[in-house]
Amino acid sequence: MVAASFAVALFAGFSGFSLLRGASRLGAGQRKLLVVVAAIVLGGGIWSMHFVAMLGLQLPLVFYYDGLNTLLSALVAILMVGLALLLLHFGRRTRARLALAGAVLGGGIAAMHYIGMLGMELCGPVFGVTGMAISLVTALGLSNLAIWAAYGARSKRHILLGTLCFAIAVVTMHFVAMAGTAFYPEEAASTAGPELSNAILAMLVTLSSFVISGVALLSGVSFFTPPETVVPFTAPFAAPESPAAEPPRPEVVAPFPRAEPKGTSLPVPYERDGAIHFAESSSIAAIRAEGHYTVIYTGTHKHLCPWSISEACSRLGPYHFLRVHRSYLINPSHVSHFQRTKDTGVCFFKEVDTLAKAPVSRSRLAEVKSVLGV
């Protein structure tokens, strides 16, 4: 049950954080919808983790739960997680805002736990002040860590790290709080809602865990799978119009219109702190594909750019950027040296701490050598 509760928290964290990747670039209506879905998944994950773990609680007497308190604990978790996500996706993402969102998330985890515990009937929980204080500090600290990990930078690695921190925050807070809780038998029960036995609760958390796991699988499809390259269909046996006619040449259609150079540099957009900034193309050493977006490397920094690698290639081609690999676009003026490796090659960069090198594919090797004069 302990292992299963951690797995539920892990799936919920991944689903919620990956669903919101790139949400800041969407319209307000789409963002609100994604925040609602993510809040239900994350809040429901906190609730499911708690009651999966509670199914493993063994006491020397029978107990059950007040249905109204159990429902209220889930709704409080969803609302507080939703508030934290609204802080993160509406408005500038400053340090104070990240800290506030982490505090709200931690408060939601703690509130869900203690409201859910108060729903126990025939067996009342007794909370020690020290145990409550330690569990609250644990929830706030680890929730802040999860938010900073997931939203410090919106890369895949940071989202996965934030997912792990979220799961650790929920599970650790629960068991720290349980360690500081004692129980006493009650002679009579006074429920405000329907009675929920462990058997009924097991069915509910199984259903919620199934939904969360399904959302995690659906999110993982787009999160881990690189974008597909669409190849235009050509007939395998195309007959010529006449015996002497030339075979038709394949038509090459660019996905984006090629931009005409305006000046010596082009502003390239990137996201930071919930706002769109611009970097001059002359300061960019390389651009790497990252799903439907790209990462730009400038000196000691790297940023997420809303352009796809194809759009970046089309827009920056006139400014002497060179496509060296299906996932890499480089600025030759930042290349320090070139190394041949059998049928491929590697370009190394000068004064770029965030990216040491970029691979050169075999099909582009001749063009790269020609541009670099080697």
Outline the fold blueprint.
Blueprint (H helix, E strand, L loop, with lengths): L1 H18 L8 H27 L9 E3 H23 L5 H24 L1 E2 L1 E5 L1 H23 L4 H24 L1 E5 L9 E2 L1 H27 L42 E6 L2 E6 L5 E5 L2 E6 L2 E5 L3 H8 L5 E4 L2 E3 L4 E7 L2 E6 L7 E4 L4 H8 L2
Antiparallel strand pairs: 1-2, 1-5, 3-4, 6-7, 8-9, 8-12, 9-10, 11-12, 13-14, 14-15
Class derived from helix and strand content: alpha+beta
Largest sheet: 5 strands, antiparallel
Strand content: 15-25%
Number of self-contained structural domains: 2
Radius of gyration: 27 Å
Q: Total strand count, please?
A: 15
Rounded mean pLDDT score? 84
Work out the helicity level: 40-55%
* Global morphology: elongated
What letter string, H or E per element, gives the SSE order?
HHEHHEEHHEEHEEEEEHEEEEEH
How would you concisely characterize the structure shown here?
By secondary structure, this protein is α+β, with helices and mostly antiparallel strands.
Structural overview:
- It is a single chain.
- The strands form 5 sheets. The protein has a 5-stranded antiparallel sheet. It has a 3-stranded antiparallel sheet with strand order 2-1-5.
- The model is unreliable at about 225-245 and about 250-255 (pLDDT under 50).
- With about 375 residues, it is an alpha+beta fold.
- The longest helix is centred in the first third of the chain and has 27 residues, at about 30-55.
- About 40% of the residues are buried.
- It has 2 domains: about 1-225, no CATH class; about 265-370, OB fold (Dihydrolipoamide Acetyltransferase, E2P) (Beta Barrel), CATH 2.40.50.1020.
- It has 9 helices and 15 strands.
- It comes from Alloyangia mangrovi.
- Keywords: DNA-binding, Membrane, Transmembrane, Transmembrane helix.
- Pfam families: LytTR, MHYT.
- GO terms for molecular function: DNA binding.
